[in-house]
Write a structure and sequence with these properties.
single chain, mainly alpha
């Protein structure tokens, strides 16, 4: 499930970059959202994995 969400996030980001240069402001805002929301999700996954690894290493030293 997580892999599918990552793939969908990347596809939405690519589509968002294509939509951001349209003349219609509504479509530009939608394109910006299609870039921002998946980017936030990918950053969330990155930080979650990073902090889980640092917490596990702290538990091993106790």
């Amino acid at each position: 499930m997580k892999v599918k969400l990552v793939v969908v996030s990347i596809v939405l980001m690519v589509l968002g970059f294509g939509m951001i240069h349209n003349g219609n402001p509504t479509i530009e805002y939608a394109g910006s959202a299609m870039i921002g929301v998946p980017a936030a999700y990918l950053l969330f996954l990155l930080f979650r994995v990073y902090f889980r690894k640092t917490d596990d290493s702290m538990d091993d030293t106790k």
